[in-house]
Amino acid sequence: RRRLLAASATAGLTTSPAGADTLANVPAREPGAPLSARSERSRFVELGRVPEAAPGIRPVDPVDAINSKTPFDRLVGSITPTDLHYERSHAGVPDLDPAKHRLLVHGLAARSLVLTMDDIRAMPSVSRVAFLECTGNGWENWKAADPTLTVQNTHGLVSTHEWTGVPLRFVIDLVGGVPSATWMLAEGADGAAVARSIPLTEEIMAEGILAYAQNGEPLRPAHGFPLRLFLPGLEGNLSIKWLRRLKFGDQPFMTRWETARYTQLQADGRARQFQLRQEVNSVITAPSGMMRVRPGPVRISGLAWSGHGRIVQVEVSTDGGASWQAARLTAPALPKAQVRFEMDWVWAGAPTGIVSRATDEMRNVQPDRAAFIARTGTNALFHYSAQQTWRISAEGDVRNALS
Amino acid sequence: RRRLLAASATAGLTTSPAGADTLANVPAREPGAPLSARSERSRFVELGRVPEAAPGIRPVDPVDAINSKTPFDRLVGSITPTDLHYERSHAGVPDLDPAKHRLLVHGLAARSLVLTMDDIRAMPSVSRVAFLECTGNGWENWKAADPTLTVQNTHGLVSTHEWTGVPLRFVIDLVGGVPSATWMLAEGADGAAVARSIPLTEEIMAEGILAYAQNGEPLRPAHGFPLRLFLPGLEGNLSIKWLRRLKFGDQPFMTRWETARYTQLQADGRARQFQLRQEVNSVITAPSGMMRVRPGPVRISGLAWSGHGRIVQVEVSTDGGASWQAARLTAPALPKAQVRFEMDWVWAGAPTGIVSRATDEMRNVQPDRAAFIARTGTNALFHYSAQQTWRISAEGDVRNALS
Amino acid sequence: QSFGRTPSASEIAGWDIDVRPDGAGLPAGGGTVAQGRAVYDENCAACHGPEGRDGIRDRLAGGQGTLASGQPIKTVGSYWPYATTLFDYIRRAMPYQAPASLSADETYAVSAYILYLNGILPAEGGLDRASLPRVRMPNRDGFLPEREFTAGWTAAR
Amino acid sequence: QSFGRTPSASEIAGWDIDVRPDGAGLPAGGGTVAQGRAVYDENCAACHGPEGRDGIRDRLAGGQGTLASGQPIKTVGSYWPYATTLFDYIRRAMPYQAPASLSADETYAVSAYILYLNGILPAEGGLDRASLPRVRMPNRDGFLPEREFTAGWTAAR
Ligand code: HEC
Ligand code: HEC
Ligand SMILES: [Ca+2]
Ligand SMILES: [Ca+2]
Ligand SMILES: [Ca+2]
Ligand SMILES: [Ca+2]
Ligand SMILES: [Ca+2]
Ligand SMILES: [Ca+2]
Ligand SMILES: [Co+2]
Ligand SMILES: [Co+2]
Question: What's the whole-number average pLDDT of chain A?
């Protein structure tokens, strides 16, 4: 379902502008509901992901869905609500019993190990706020811009949580180190046993986490309960959910997901492979697709993130990319985490386009679409990170556009 | 309901140690449930707050409950799951329609203002991860230590979220500044219209937020939907929920909550008033009350926080406070936010007590109970922040103790 | 950028329910202990007990002289420093199930009755806008404001 | 502190399902295109269509020569660089509703049949542990490994 939202209704609320015209009409105070074991959402707040089957195929029968997208048009702040973290699964969501779940660690290591969840939760833990992004995020806009898309449709395959788990390094030390290994196969316990070959770079050895919790609580099944790999800044598919096996080796295993899928076709018909980093990216979440603005003050709000590290600057253009102004970050930017930006704008009522571009601490600047496509072609399907333009009509209708 | 939990079962999981004795017994992989609009918790994860009526009165009929406590014995990381943030309400949880909700700002200000939620969500926002703590947290242990208490019972009235909203400063500027005001009354739209006089200190002017979101989504009704005050580091009761009025003045209004309640009786019968800061505090969450440990390696894990700023050190004693060792923080400590600490320990099997003590960036050190009580007496009821000792019996039973 | 609208004086008056120790905010009207007993028996006794004691909710009377003991009993009479707080609180919060349902006169009256139950007003006493702020509560001097947050105000007193 | 236990070799073998481009991990056994057609028709055709085309799920055949076009069709035949990946993927993930339900022989056979549908094996062909890694896939050289993540490995090749 799609709704027209006023630009200011960024918090998932449908407020009728009339409401109460005098304070005398505000409903009288009265005792409320009893305290509870869990705080549910207000009945006035409707938040849900959108399951989809492939670019342009949505809404979709849930059994056909392969993605379920985060409603950025209705969120604020930088952390994603736990139950709204985007979802990408290849064989549905398994219902795993943590008492029966096992992690096998083997291959080119001094010794093999079988770990229970009790073992893993008794190891030293680290927590880190970081984004996870599906390699396919942005895949709607490679070739054409469906003007009916919302920001949930265009950018809903990225989310930010506090992840908690055991450093990968700790588990590697447990099996006696892996000096001769250069790759690690990570495999899930899902129906597809999704498996990826992970290069043992210094960054991955230092930052990889065997995560068992998100935002303070055990992972939810859709996100890998009871255990997943989490590799900050790298393509989401590497962060294998329902993790049940780590195997060390000296070459990639060439699973379907790093050959047939998650490789990026160039214009010449050859494909980039192991393009694992999520590039610097940003999007304006309000006003965004299918919203409507009125002439006058408009608060522009959005999210920026980069797999290279911290966001150091976000700029916004309200004239379709001709001129740029620095936006304000609403919280300290964390490395490899989404951060919100805001900018004040007064819309005079003339048609225009609004765009954001982010810069990260490695000085990577998010490219405009023309430069991005010149480099990548339009067949890559994954790793789309060009600037997002929202066109605004004379009537104030905000629509997805290529630039 | 209480359960005996092994020390390692810190993530809300009930794992039977048997499980699967060989990998051949791990259940076969199979396709899972369809993707969904919201990720629910695993059926193997049970998490809930405990509503209580007063110290020692629990479980309780929900209509009699005044508090509902966060299950720290089953959480990990530093952020609290949104639906498990502790709850303290004085007249139940109102069901407010955001379209009809209004904020009145008036009193000793250049002008008065009525704001709608659309107005407020269109203002500049800030996000901040910070704890909120009920002034009554710890109130179980003033006079005696019920040995059946869990850490949820002793310390479940504090939580940490990302809060998003409008800087108080911005709203003050909107009414033309309040140069002659030194106090601000904040009042809720709940049945009790809970109201507090807030001194307009530099810190409060700089850090106060009119919050409308927690962990990325609109506040939930139990936590003040659609709008609450949020004053980082200060007693929770000040952060008025369901905020509907701010009135500026030049003296405190002396509401019931800053006279009859939330004042701390000393031994001499006089009471400390406007003791608004939450002091440096910490607690071991595992192993903790009603858990059981086995001789051998035990991972000690806990949370530390301070209303003065960042936690710079947490020490743990495994000999009842005689000697101390530095614990490791599992994430960068943020100012006025909970941070998790961990320490390895090998329990030899002899009875002992485990204790944590935190130090904040202002060099405040959490006092032991004797020093704390010598200073405060045992009648204060609020602002308990002494070190928490968990006694371990020869059988490995972990129990609440005064020291 | 402009936000919100300016409220009318009568709108503000409808919401401006707080009462300060100096009496600012008190409405016109008044009530006696005798009138207050009737208000109390009808609206309050079910929760707070027949004489402000032994109810299922907070005790409202007694406890004077217990604050320095091992079992302090904090009530309006033993603990509350300002009578204005009683009016303010009843007006905003009581009776629990129907806050703000009492008239100003009823609120003065029931406040007077609770002070009577605590020996602060005589049986033939009463309260109005002028007298209420002048009531001297037994524990008026029992509070020690924290310097950090009240320095300016305590200096001004 | 010690965690976990050492698995037996047979436990590991039961879980060690991956197959590498050099054939490491392939089980004993084998199967022919003809056998594979039967396996396919029984277990796969319902989703992938009669000849690996026009099914309700992923297309498995055709598309060669389309990769540089505006409408690239990526299939086992047109896109996949290694035949070992086909065996590995079918063994771990197909048939969708009953992963790991095929025998090793059946997996060799259906892999052979899919390669046949793509013109990579002849009708009378087959696959086994020795021959499978030697199959030269049409798009074998179509991939450009990213330096940052594959520098050591590409240098070693
Ligand atoms: C249905 C139950 C109920 C009724 C009826 C009721 N009250 Fe209360 N009263 C409460 C509860 C519950 C509290 C405690 C609320 C809290 O702690 O936030 C309370 C608190 C009070 C207090 C504060 C006590 C203290 O020491 O802090 C006063 C004074 C009071 N009530 C007066 C009244 C008066 C006057 C009436 C009638 C006009 C009344 N109440 C009717 C339930 C009731
Ligand atoms: C009930 C439906 C169903 C059946 C039956 C089925 N498949 Fe699939 N197959 C799928 C789906 C769905 C996918 C895509 C999964 C994904 O993208 O993660 C797929 C993908 C594949 C792919 C990868 C295609 C590509 O280009 O990435 C191959 C190869 C494959 N199946 C082979 C088989 C074989 C062989 C069988 C029978 C032994 C079989 N399938 C039976 C549903 C089915
Ligand atoms: Ca109602
Ligand atoms: Ca099943
Ligand atoms: Ca007033
Ligand atoms: Ca009446
Ligand atoms: Ca193998
Ligand atoms: Ca069969
Ligand atoms: Co993905
Ligand atoms: Co409180």
Answer: 94
- Residue range B84-114, pLDDT digits in tens: 999 999 999 999 999 999 999 999 999 999 9
Residue B344: CA atoms inside 13 Å, Cβ hemisphere, count? 7
Q: Position of tokens 């084998």?
A: D30
DSSP chain C: ---SBPPPHHHHHHH-----TT-TTPPS-EEEHHHHHHHHHHHTHHHH-TTSSS-SS---S--TT-TTSSS----TTTT-S-HHHHHHHHHHH-STTSTT-S-HHHHHHHHHHHHHHTTSS-TT-EEETTTGGG---TTTT-EEE-HHHHHHHHHH-
Whether residues D7 and A104 touch (CB distance < 8 A) is answered with yes
Would you identify the CATH topology of the domain A102-272?
Sulfite Oxidase; Chain A, domain 2 (3.90.420)
Name the amino acid, one letter, at A389: T
Asked if pLDDT for residue A6 goes beyond 60, the answer is no
Alpha carbon of A343 to those of A170, A212, A330, B216, C119: distances in Å?
Answer: 43, 37, 10, 19, 61
Give the right CATH number for D18-137 from 3.30.70.1170, 3.40.190.10, 1.10.760.10, 3.30.70.270.
1.10.760.10
The predicted complex's ipTM stands at 0.94
Task: Chunk chain D into consecutive blocks of 10 residues (it has 157) and report each block's average pLDDT, rounded to whole numbers.
Answer: 91 98 98 98 98 96 97 98 98 98 98 98 98 98 97 80
* Chain D hits for A199, Cβ within 8 Å: 149-150, 152-153
**Mean pLDDT, chain C, whole residue set:** 96
Please state the length of chain A.
403
Pick from C19, C56, C57 the residue to mutate for probing ligand 1's pocket: most ligand atoms within 8 Å of its CB: C57
Domain locations in chain D as residue ranges: 18-137
pLDDT of amino acid A5: 37
Q: Please tell me the predicted confidence (pLDDT) of residue B19.
A: 57
**Among A120, A245, A270, beta carbon nearest to D142:** A270
